[in-house]
């Protein structure tokens, strides 16, 4: 049998279909053997003639010959089908391995490109108070800040730049981008009054480049 669908990749559904056909053939073979069993227990090789060489009168010769012929044909079909099942499973397994290797390679390439294309950080979070707006937003100690609202490495001069953005954004979400564990992470931070000091509840220090 040609590859299912004229060259398209083998799927799990194709294998299941082949196995169903295999089960059907096995059921047909069993039915033919039952038919032979019903004919005085005649199997595949018992003689169909009596001791004098005449066709046996105690059995339905046509039924026996037909059943024997069908069994031989079905067994050949079964053998071919088993080969197809084996080949399909092999292709399926090989494709899974190939996909896994490709996924790993893509993940590695993405990680490498992430590292190469990470923007420059200008400040770092060195303290986050639990329960503060910064903590609730998901900001973490050692996060390196690359964007804080409108502030980035190109226009950052000192921490007053960040303080100004915070004061003008009270109660409104700020887009903050940090580098964490070698990856870029976006955080939505809303400066607001809380039980502690300031509007953020975190400490930020400039990065010395």
Automatic annotation (TrEMBL):
Ranges annotated as spanning the membrane: none
SMART domains registered for this protein in UniProt: PDZ
InterPro entries named among the record's database cross-references: Nas2_N, PDZ, PDZ_6, PDZ_sf, PSMD9
Pfam families, A to Z: Nas2_N (PF18265), PDZ_6 (PF17820)
Keyword Chaperone set for record: yes
This protein's UniProt keywords: Chaperone
Recorded GO CC terms: cytoplasm; nucleus
Domain of life: Eukaryota
Span of domain PDZ: 90-182
Keyword Chaperone on entry: yes
GO biological process, one term: proteasome regulatory particle assembly
Function: Acts as a chaperone during the assembly of the 26S proteasome, specifically of the base subcomplex of the PA700/19S regulatory complex (RC). During the base subcomplex assembly is part of an intermediate PSMD9:PSMC6:PSMC3 module, also known as modulator trimer complex; PSMD9 is released during the further base assembly process.
Quaternary structure and partners: Interacts with PSMC3. Part of a transient complex (modulator) containing PSMD9, PSMC6 and PSMC3 formed during the assembly of the 26S proteasome.
Recorded family membership: Belongs to the proteasome subunit p27 family.
Record protein name field: 26S proteasome non-ATPase regulatory subunit 9
Source organism of this protein record: Pycnonotus jocosus
Gene that encodes it: Psmd9
């Amino acid at each position: 049998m040609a590859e299912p669908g004229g060259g398209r990749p083998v799927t799990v559904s194709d294998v299941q279909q082949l196995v169903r056909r295999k089960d059907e053939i096995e059921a047909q073979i069993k039915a033919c053997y039952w038919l032979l069993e019903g004919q005085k227990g005649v199997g595949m090789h018992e003689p169909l003639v009596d001791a004098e060489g005449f066709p046996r009168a105690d059995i339905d010769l046509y039924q026996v010959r037909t059943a024997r012929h069908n069994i031989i044909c079905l067994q050949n079909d079964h053998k071919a089908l088993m080969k197809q099942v084996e080949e399909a499973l092999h292709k399926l397994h090989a494709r899974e391995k190939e996909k896994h290797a490709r996924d790993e390679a893509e993940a590695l390439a993405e990680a490498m490109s992430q590292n190469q294309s990470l923007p420059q950080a200008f400040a770092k979070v060195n303290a986050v108070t639990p329960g503060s707006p910064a903590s609730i937003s998901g900001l973490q100690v050692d996060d390196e800040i690359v964007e804080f609202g409108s502030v980035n490495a190109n226009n950052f001069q000192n921490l007053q730049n960040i303080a100004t953005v915070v004061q003008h954004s009270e109660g409104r979400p700020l887009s903050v981008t940090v580098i964490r564990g070698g990856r870029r992470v976006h955080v939505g931070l809303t400066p607001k009054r809380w039980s502690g000091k300031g509007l953020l509840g975190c400490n930020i220090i400039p990065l010395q480049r």
